[in-house]
Amino acid sequence: MSVTDVPLDALPAIPRPGRVLLTTPEHFEVAYVINPHMAGNIGDVDQTRARTQWEALRDVYERLGVEVSTLEGASGLPDMVFCANQTLPYLTPGGERGAVLSRMHAPQRKAEVDHYAEFFQAQGYETHGLDPDLPGDFEGMGDAIWHPGRYLLWGGYGYRTDRAVYERLSDKMGFPVVPLALTDPEFYHLDTCFCPLDEDTVLIYPGAFQEDGLEEIRSRFVRVLEAPEDESRELFACNAHSPDGQHVIIQQGCTVTNGLLREAGYEVIELDTSEYLKSGGSVFCMKVMFW
Ligand code: ARG
User: Fold this and answer.
1) What is the catalytic activity of this protein (predicted)?
2) Which of 153, 180, 206, 247 lies 20 to 30 angstroms, CA to CA, from 48?
3) 254 is an active site residue
């Protein structure tokens, strides 16, 4: 893997994506258990509240000037609303837009990917699945997160994505990947414990990483904000999202985390995503950014 010692500012600059895709929640429910947060919540989603919470998220993106696209959720795919997971959209330094299609780990979620492939193709994106000879799974932007403003990928692995997938993607597409082992089943996707806010700053829950992973993070971000354990585990504090490097959209009630964010100069926008927390997801999982 071209894990790099090249300093960040020597990597190609990539503009931040300005568009967001959201998937409508009419078919969202907790229908099976594929992560520890879902246990005990089967059948517990309140549809009306889920719709209201989703609309509030959509309204925030619109208010912030992000162009919103929506895809209709499909019946029988209750997790399709978590649209960070089915693809990894990219923009190359040469200006090509594309999307790597996921190979979902859970059999219950595999059929979601085609819906996103169609969406991105209609946007003029080149879409590619993983090479058939490559074993292992890949859950898109749940685990693979671009460094804001740079052609560098942070790659979480261990629960939903296999490390070898990053080696192949990196070889084929020419971007460096910093692999990060995940070590706690409640933080099963990288986006549950790692939230880059801008080129210099990341919000993390350090307890979800190994020491060498933390060193990688600390060596590439100037500022590392650490969310406390209770807010990270129960409120998904690190599943926040900053679409612009100024505002941070986050589950409401993350008092300590929000203090750190404000002190660091961000404007915090608190939203209630409690229906989605029942399924092990919050803000970051409910959207995918693209160019
Ligand atoms: N119930 C979904 C699953 O376990 C939640 C996915 C949340 N997405 C995320 N990017 N963390 O697959």
Assistant:
1) L-arginine + H2O = L-citrulline + NH4(+)
2) 247
3) no
- Find where tokens 């997790």 sit: 79
Instruction: Tell me how far apart the alpha carbons of residues 50 and 56 are, in angstroms, rounded to a whole number.
Output: 10
Q: Which atom of ligand 1 is nearest to the CA of 189?
A: 11
**Catalytic residue flag (residue 189):** yes
In angstroms, what CA-CA distances link 7 with 155, 156, 176, 220? 18, 21, 11, 8
Domains and CATH numbers, the chain: 12-290 (3.75.10.10)
Consecutive H or E run containing 259: helix 255-263
Question: CB under 6 Å to ligand 1: residues?
Answer: 34-35, 38, 79, 82, 84-85, 142, 189, 191-192, 279-281, 285
**Choice among 189, 238, 247, 254 that is catalytic:** 189
Q: What is the pLDDT of residues 95-147, one digit of tens each?
A: 999 999 999 999 999 999 999 999 999 999 999 999 999 999 999 999 999 99
The pTM of the full predicted model, rounded to 2 decimals, is 0.97
